Amino acid sequence: MMPSSSVQWRKSSYSNGMGGECLEVAILTEAIAVRDSKVAPGPQVTLSNAAWQSFIGALASIQAGTC
């Protein structure tokens, strides 16, 4: 499932505009799309809502040092 051009993308709050590692996410009806903000027309990864929640949970565990 590729998002249409009308999808609203949100840039990571960690993006600094200075060429750092940036990603954007788009909330779709039944999935989450992720892309590199520096290459917006490039490849995108689409995750189910469950997979996205697992991914975010794993990141939170890493940040909390419980992983």
Element layout with pairings:
Blueprint: E1 9-11, E2 23-27, E3 31-36, E4 44-48, H1 49-64
Antiparallel strand pairs: 1-2, 2-3, 3-4
Give the strand content.
25-35%
Biggest sheet: strand arrangement: 1-2-3-4
Structural class: alpha+beta
Instruction: Describe the main β-sheet briefly.
Output: 4 strands, antiparallel
Number of domains: 1
Low-confidence region ranges: none
Mean pLDDT: 84
Oligomer: single chain
Morphology? flat
- Our count of helices gives 1
Output the helix-strand order: EEEEH
Which value, in Å, is the CA radius of gyration? 13 Å
Number of strands: 4
Alpha carbon gap, first and last residue: 31 Å
How much helix is in the residues?
Answer: 10-25%
Question: What is this entry, summarized?
Answer:
The chain is an alpha+beta fold and 67 residues long.
Would you write up a description of this structure?
With about 70 residues, the chain is of the alpha+beta class. It has one domain. Helix content is about 25%, strand content about 30%. The chain has one helix at about 50-65, and strands spanning about 10, 25, 30-35, 45-50. Strands 1-2-3-4 form a 4-stranded antiparallel sheet.
